Batch of 3 targets.
Target 1
Amino acid sequence: MKKNIIIILLLIITAKISAQEVTFNQIKEQYEAFEYEKVIQLSNSFVRSGGISDSVKIEVFQMRVVAFYSLGDETSSQNSFREILKINKNYQPDPSKISPRLIAIFQNVKEDYLKSLKQETALKDTLQQSQIVISPLQLKSSIIKNLFVPGWGQISSGYPEKGYLLSVASSANLVSMIYFIFDAKKKQDAYLKEINKSLIPSRYDSYNKSYKLRNILITSYVFIWLYSQIDLLLFSNGTDSNSAPDISGVAFGNSERDIQFNFRIPFPF
């Protein structure tokens, strides 16, 4: 029984291959006889059928190029060239089979095709980069990270350039802020303990400058921190700006008591 099935399958495959060879031969015969309308009719169904090698398809499309051009349909000739380029973008027509005029047309078609292909590739890359999808669990993790280090959440969410910029800016600001907090306290103590009247103004000026820088750095750090949180929640969360992410669910519990803390951040966009 199995042998019979195998034999039947082999006969079907052989018949199919033979039918394709005959169809291709028929197209070629009509092409060599300059029956271009018949070439187009026969090749219409042939190019849509499956199981045909790329080399055979290219040869059939080459015949269609000549057939369409000979019948005065240059647009269809260009379309046939495009179909060839879809199969092989490095294709070059054989001057012995195609006239110089058709080769010139092909060069224009190829130039436009490669240009559009490059634009499509660039667009796909841009869309892939912009369409960052973040799961709710990952977003919660990013928010927690961002509370401690501004920019860390953006890095975790797939926005490294923005994240590293915020991280470097906030870290440098934090280090400077801590330094001037201690510096201002040190200079304040020196100013309050100074008993030499001639040194009191200079002590005060030194303390005042350090005090002002401390306040500026504190304010700027708070600004960077708030900006980082807002940016993560609204613009760097990998979700559609028209949808409101649901951020909730922090719970602590034991066998006797359960303490649950839920919070929600709605976005009215």
Note: Confidence is low (pLDDT under 50) at residues 14-22, 240-269.
Target 2
Amino acid sequence: MVRKYIVLITDLGEGSPFPGIMKGVIKSISPEAEIIDLSHQVRPYQVEEASFLLMCNYKYFPQGTILVTVVDPEVGGKRKIVLVKTKNYFFLAPDNGILSWVLKKEKPEKIIEVKNEKYFLKPVSNTFQGRDIFAPVVGWLAKGEKIKNFGPKIDKIKKIPFPEVVHQNNRWIGKIIYIDHFGNLVSNFAQEEFSKLLEQNFSLRIKNKIFSRLSSSYSEVKKGEPCLLWDSFGFLEIALREDNLAQQWRIKPGEKVILEIKRESAKGP
């Protein structure tokens, strides 16, 4: 596979120097590499948020792309750094569960624990290993270095469960798992599982707000009005047209979302 493209997902912040430093290290090793910033605005230390973005977006990049995810609350500690090869991609990340969800969609062919210090910058900082380990490793990988040279093969990585919707009689209890740049609330109700259910007579409640209608676009409501629709990731989204719903309603990730179906029409997803 051609390894020309490198995609970065981090919590380092768009306005900080850290993403630029990482890119400088990568380019010093592999000048031909093309670096794409998916996001540096993951909320600090939020592994699940980074995992969600990776799971939803990896497939839009060319075969052979190296996806590097650096959201690393245990940086400098005993956690491993892993490099995973699948049929179509490479994934480099701390072994903190961040690859759990994407690897349900992309079957691992080989998992390497990154340990070969030959490919690290020296000295290695215990606070910025994005610069000293992740960046040089991905630079050498993009340059064509064999995956086996970065460390020993291992059989498994740490896993974290996807936050599943809980079913209780005619109620389904989910939660907000992501808030985008516009303040739209993305829930864990997946379209492929719940689209038929929302064709029935339903009510969806978040805090004291109730929805009973699904929109097909933001334009179906007036400016400043809330709407419920399937987002581009394939999950149920709650939005406020041309306004920031998360700020207006003071909602954060983890907020409970309850879907109810009238008993006479309840059929299940």
Note: The CA atoms of residues 161 and 212 lie 30 Å apart.
Target 3
Amino acid sequence: MDARGEQPLVLTVDVGNTTTRLGVFCTDEIQGTWELTTPASLTADEVYAQVVRALDMLGIGVPHDAILACVVPSLTDAWRQALTRACTGRVYVVGPGLKTGIPMRCDDPSEVGADRVADAVAARASYGAPVVVVDLGTTTTIEVVDADGAFAGGVIAPGVALGARSLAAAAARLPVIELRAPSSVIGRNTCSAMQSGVVLGEVARIDGLVDAVMRELGAAAPVVVTGDGASGLAPLLAHETVLDEALTLRGLHTIWKYNVKWGRGAARG
């Protein structure tokens, strides 16, 4: 609670390579979300204007704290400065120096993207351990939480949209296609053949990688799907999955709670 005995509003921000997502929490409930396109560059003033507009459109008051996950290093400072202006309390940035509450069993934890850490934290909190997260975006990532509840590592591959754009750019006669599953694997025209290769190929790749992950874990684990286009791709997977589109934002909120509870981590701003 804040100084007036009220539950504080917490703004969570996930800046991805393509899309930026904002979520506002009060206690453990998400009050609203907003999505923005992630540009190549932004000033702190531009970010501040976008945040204020989003909060206004959501009908939500001024947040107390904010927590930021940004995988675009050139935008981190602008977002940190803007959030400092937009909030009345502290701004936390997921990265070296901020505790997350999850053990990291990888060679260099500082290399792991902040969004991947947030996914693992939220998945463990919501679905237990072990658990596997498939996050669809500019990249397709698989995050693995082992039976001990530690982040064990994962997989990074080109995302489905990136694969489609690369195919069209590299082959002069291939068009840009709509990313949806075709009616059959055997395409009877160029567009459906590409959709089979790109969309169904992505599904086969994810299923195959998840199978390999389960074998290495030595146990079955829930598979949670999140990210851009997750609602369209998850039903195509052979594995039973849980669709959780707010997973990353919930993970950021969980990390914020951990730092507030223990008073750890350097605030940014």
Note: Confidence is low (pLDDT under 50) at residues 264-269.
